[in-house]
Amino acid sequence: MKFLIFSDIEDSAKQVMSFLKGKGDFVLYTTEKGESLTKYGAQKIVLLTGKPEVKGISSLLSDEFSSGGYDLVMIASTVLGRDVASLFSGQKSIEVIPEIFDIKFNSGTVTTKRYGLGGKAVIEEESKSKLFTFLSGLSDDVPGDGSSPIETKNIPEGVVKILAIEQKKAKEVNLEKANIIVAVGRGLGKIEGIQQIEPLVKAVRGELAGSRPVCLDYHWLSEDRQVGYSGRTVKPKAYVALGISGQIQHIAGMRGSKVVVAVNKDKNAPIFQEADYGIVGDLYQIVPKIVSYL
Amino acid sequence: MPYDIVVLIKQIPDLELIKVNQSTEEPITDGVPFKFENLSKNSVEAAVRIKEKNGGKITAVLFGNEKGTQVMKEAYAMGVDEGILITGYSENNPVLTAKVLAQKIKQLHYDLVILGNQSADSMSGMVAGLVATELNLPLLSNAVSIEVADKIVKVSTATEKDVIKSETTMPAVISVTQETNEPRFPPVLQIIKAGKKSISTEQSTVKIENTSKIISKKAPKSERKRLIFEDVDKGAQEVAKVLKEAMK
Ligand SMILES: Cc1cc2nc3c(=O)[nH]c(=O)nc-3n(C[C@H](O)[C@H](O)[C@H](O)COP(=O)(O)OP(=O)(O)OC[C@H]3O[C@@H](n4cnc5c(N)ncnc54)[C@H](O)[C@@H]3O)c2cc1C
Ligand SMILES: Nc1ncnc2c1ncn2[C@@H]1O[C@H](COP(=O)(O)O)[C@@H](O)[C@H]1O
After folding, report:
1. Which ligand has the nearest atom to the CA of B175?
2. Fold of B5-203
3. Nearest CA of chain A to the CA of B78: how many Å?
4. At the top level of CATH, which class does the domain A2-154 belong to?
5. Whose CA is nearest to atom 8 of ligand 1?
């Protein structure tokens, strides 16, 4: 079996290559230069240069798919990846199974798992589909010692004109490796509140994370600290959720945590259904108390 | 310059009200009321803001079932001018959904098609690209901001790493994110008025071959202890113990 992979994110590229190791041959198409990508056993790495216009990328991939003898296409579920996948699906009339977090290869069919009903259901399905988008957290990152050759290809220009690309701040944290994560939600109320959470983070030698509104809407924390369905998937030994209501899209990112602690002033907050230990009350009052007992 | 806009809106079951059948472990959706899908609301808001500034007409298209009239009324109250409800939606299937929606859109006059980047229930994120392909239109996706002038539309897209500014000439398909705007709550009077407005309803005729079959659809397992403390002091002590253990 031969896989065509596209990922514009290094972590996801590494995860999917780790996952596919031993299951077939694969070629990675990526916009990421990372030299470290060569250690995962890809037949080759095709570095896509030029402006990341999604139609251009999907046309390029769709030509490669036709000429390269590929069986299946795996595309990282990122902002660009989802568009590339949907355009590819449309162009090639290949049905796509989106947002999978598990896949098994049978003879002629695949069995995949994804979330439905906003995370309230896990849909397991069997299909003949050849195209998938996969969530971050598909697999652990297990580098090998190979060294894949790198080739470059230029992304063709499309009808959409890219005017400017501004780099966001470099990633400052690797939540996937954290032992303990202290996550804050909208219940924090204000950015200054972070200072009152930091003593707890320090005391447990943990990492700070947040819900989507805290990272994307209010920018109280950097975006790479967002946990959840469209953020990071984490599995720490302990996950402490402070002022997070526990919407399913958040839970989807931290469900694998070993122990979950929740602090929320609303006794009926759904996060308590997903917690091992919960405290009902004001986080500003409770956090210093926890620190004092550590 | 006025712009005619088609917004694609979806109805979804109220996810918070879904319970789990303890013996089959399946989520129960029967009897759960429908609501306006989150990103669809952001899409309507984006369209209404363009209309308020430039004029034009907003047509909303919803592929769902008869209950969709409720959502459509809410869309009217937010500022949509005309609503088309296509019935016959069953399971989430982005390819089918895009075909149904595109077939209808082709019969309408529009400068822009606006929809959500990823809907809150199925989260497929596929409809935007599929609709753009069906209509053979440029796609500007995951917009966090939209500007229109002289039949040109510019958006900023926030990817995981960059902020990309791009533009294209209309007509075009635009997908929006949660961060694009804060959808308005229409005043009660507007909702009452909207209730009297007619919605044109038709049955979908598009059929496609389904290549996948669902083996199971169960609630994710949660085996959490759920020890909830209302005594803050006792809770803090217990939590400190747990955290010390995890630090080892
Ligand atoms: C396609 C899609 C993808 C998404 N992806 C993600 C994702 O990756 N990650 C994510 O987090 N969300 C995601 N969301 C958003 C998600 O649906 C919720 O909107 C979000 O998780 C809510 O964040 P919150 O819990 O911080 O805020 P809220 O839901 O507003 O909850 C705040 C909580 O704080 C409590 N509180 C208030 N004050 C205090 C206090 N002083 N002390 C203690 N408790 C207090 C309140 O009782 C409340 O429960 C996504 C949504 C969609 C549609
Ligand atoms: N059945 C539908 N009817 C109308 N619009 C839809 C439908 N399904 C999806 N959409 C639109 O497409 C967006 C993204 O959905 P999806 O690609 O399925 O995640 C939604 O936010 C809606 O704007």
Report:
1. 2
2. Rossmann fold (3.40.50)
3. 22
4. alpha beta
5. A228
